[in-house]
Amino acid sequence: MTKAKTGLKRQLLRAGGWQVAKRVAKTIPFGGAAVVLFLVGSDIRRKGVGKGLLNSGIDAIPFVGLAKNAVELFRGDFIPDKVRKGK
């Protein structure tokens, strides 16, 4: 029975790949916060300053924001948009 020997290069690549995967997995919750920072202006325009900041703040919390958005996908907004005046 002969075992296929893995080279040093492959072993280093495999170990390095796991290190990169672990680091990426740790940053995923904070990726949502980065998206919220990018979209906070549109929330403020649609909902007003107070409600827009509250909505963005809730969305920025890693797992709470994910749960809120999942429920809003089916139910609709928890914090409604401000009333637009017609012309």
Quick gist of this model?
It is built from three helices and no strands.
Distance between the termini: 83 Å
Strand content: under 5%
Task: Give the beta-strand count.
Answer: 0
Indicate the radius of gyration in whole angstroms: 22 Å
Uncertain stretches: none
Alpha plus pi helix count: 3
Helix/strand structural class: mainly alpha
- Helix-strand topology string: HHH
Shape: elongated
Largest sheet: none
* Average of the residue pLDDT scores: 80
Q: What is the share of helical residues?
A: over 70%
Can you offer a commentary on this structure?
The protein is mainly α and 87 residues long. The chain has a domain at 29-77. The protein has helices spanning 8-47, 49-60, 62-75. α1 runs antiparallel to α2 and α1 (8-47) packs across α3 (62-75). The longest helix is centred in the N-terminal third of the chain and has 40 residues, at 8-47. It is elongated. The N and C termini lie far apart (83 Å). The mean pLDDT is 80.
Question: How is this fold's topology laid out?
Answer:
Layout: H1 8-47, H2 49-60, H3 62-75
